[in-house]
Design brief:
This protein is α+β, with helices and mostly antiparallel strands and 182 residues long. It is built from 3 helices and 9 strands.
Length: 182
């Protein structure tokens, strides 16, 4: 079921056309330009299994040529599990504020015992057309059955501004945690 969702999401991105993503036609007058800057970020450190995790970011690029978000997913107690490069829409090439989301498998779809204990960490950086990279920000995540916390007031203005998906299949990670998968 999750694979169908990811295939559908990928097709939607392709159908929307690459024209909606940042093109690297701009050139900086200052040589290599300046890297994007993540001004602020927030993500809850605990969510329920099956919930959608929202990672909030405010960022800007002085050169106005942000093009990609580097996403690194790490399992607790080990190094990087997967890395993806997600394109940013052209409207976010100079400044953005909102959230990226990650859907998590329900308890019926995955065994959270081990992953809930170890947790995961998402590392995010922004890349511009000249390959300048922002500093990484890290978001630890543990799974719990406690009630969700309210979004802090300083993020209410972008609570409905989706910037896109975080392109990982946690079901794949859960299967490898249990010794399954490849």
């Amino acid at each position: 079921m999750n694979k169908k969702i990811y295939v559908l999401l990928a097709l939607c991105i392709l159908i929307s056309g690459c024209a909606s993503f940042t093109r690297c036609e701009k050139t900086s007058t200052s040589g290599q330009g300046q890297p994007p800057v993540i001004l602020d970020s927030y993500a809850p450190s605990q969510i329920r299994p099956g919930a959608t995790w929202r990672v909030y970011i405010r960022a800007k690029d002085p050169d106005g040529d942000m093009k990609q978000m580097i996403q690194v997913l790490m399992r607790g107690g080990s190094g990087p599990f997967k890395t993806t490069f997600a394109p940013l829409r052209a409207e976010y090439s100079a400044e953005m504020g909102g959230y990226f989301f990650l859907r998590t498998p329900s308890p019926a779809q995955a065994d959270y015992d081990r992953l809930g204990f170890l947790g995961i960490t998402l590392r995010i950086a922004l890349l511009d057309c000249q390959k300048n990279k922002s500093e990484y920000v890290e978001f630890p995540l543990h799974f719990t059955f406690e009630a969700a916390h309210d979004l802090p007031p300083e993020w209410q203005d972008v609570a409905d501004s989706s910037l896109g998906a975080i392109m990982f299949d946690l079901g794949d990670m859960l299967n490898k945690s249990r010794g399954g998968g490849n």
